Amino acid sequence: MSSLFREARIDIAAITHNVATIVARMGVDVLAVVKANGYGHGSVAVANAALAGGATRLGVVDITEARQLREGGIEAPILAWLHDPDTDFREAADFGIRVGVSTPRQLDAAARAGVPAVHLNVDTGLGRNGAVESEWADLFAAAARYADEGAYSVEGIFSHLSGTSDEEDRQQGVRFSAAIDFAAQFGIDPPLRHLAATGGAWSLPELRFTMVRAGIGVYGLSPFGNRTSADLGLRPAMRLSAKVARVKRVAAGEGVSYGYLYRTRAETTLVLVPVGYADGIPRVLGAGAHVQIGGVLFPIAGRIAMDQFVVDVGDASVSAGDEVVLWGDPERGEPAVEEWADAAGTINYEVVTRLGNRPVRTYV
Ligand SMILES: Cc1ncc(COP(=O)(O)O)c(C=O)c1O
């Protein structure tokens, strides 16, 4: 029985296990990606668990996220890679945050602020914030100049894969190697060379260079549409549950929830689950998502509302206060995050990351 009205229970041991599994497979440094509140799991708790599992560094998107880790007591090296174009990096310097940079202007700001180290972000074919090839000479020249002046160390060079196909990812690897060679001509030889995230690093060892940035695998979820967590030896760390808020018996032919997408076929029992799209549950859910009550799976009936949805449990015996599991570890018979993702036409990343603040995170 769940003790909380809405609970996202995070299994810390699963995170540590997942990171240890990734570290063992990769054979290079692992930076654990804990951006977006640790993909919805809680960034500080995930960071501690990931470090215990053998990650040596943490990655976030911006300096605000990095500061939250420091304020949570995290002392490990943190890299932040997406910045306000007007940022002066003073906060990064104050909190000892490494910054990913891709323009001479950012290098200048990082030097003035006194950040401990920079990682040069090069675009090898994703079209996001890395420097494109025509900008590499200016970027590397500026980085070498500031490094010579002792402003910071150029600790890393990195890029990000599109994951379109193994072949296209390998081509990005070739361009990344070219960037590393070109940087060497400017006297830049950063020890941390990182291109791949969980998926690319899992399947293509040659793309691991000296470090990988692992996100989704840390949380025990698979980056592959055709391989489950269990196939990879990973354990989903989040279990989302709620208490049944109301149970009622209704007649055949009753419409359920907004727009009557569902009508009861026979006299049946409807169960109200107090979680909705305000909590991140996709409203566009199609067929296929189930919840588990008393060890049995039941389909969702009708539209997801802002705060609640309905489940038709037929003649099963369910009472108010019973625990409803929305997703967890399919190895325990719980619905998979991927089932919800498929039903909503999205990916497991989005389902867990969108989870709102009302479900209380608990850590076991
Ligand atoms: C730059 C960067 N590196 C690494 C990751 C982690 O990716 P994954 O969760 O697929 O391991 C992300 C996530 O989106 C990212 O944006």
How does this structure look, described?
This protein is of the alpha/beta class. The chain has 2 domains: 12-220, Alpha-Beta Barrel (TIM Barrel); 238-363, Lyase, Ornithine Decarboxylase, Chain A, domain 1 (Beta Barrel). The chain has 12 helices and 19 strands. It has helices at residues 12-26, 35-39, 43-52, 63-71, 90-94, 104-113, 136-148, 166-184, 198-203, 229-232, 337-344, 348-353; strands spanning 6-10, 29-33, 57-60, 78-80, 98-101, 117-121, 153-158, 192-194, 211-214, 238-243, 246-250, 255-256, 262-263, 268-273, 290-293, 296-301, 309-314, 323-327, 360-363. It has a 9-stranded mixed sheet with strand order 11-14-17-16-15-18-10-1-19. An 8-stranded parallel sheet has the order 8-7-6-5-4-3-2-9. A hairpin with a 5-residue loop joins β12 (255-256) and β13 (262-263). It is elongated. It starts with 5 loop residues before the first strand and ends with a strand. The model has no long low-confidence stretch (mean pLDDT 97). The structure holds pyridoxal-5'-phosphate (PLP). Pyridoxal-5'-phosphate (PLP) binds at residues 33, 81, 160, 197-199, 213-217, 223.
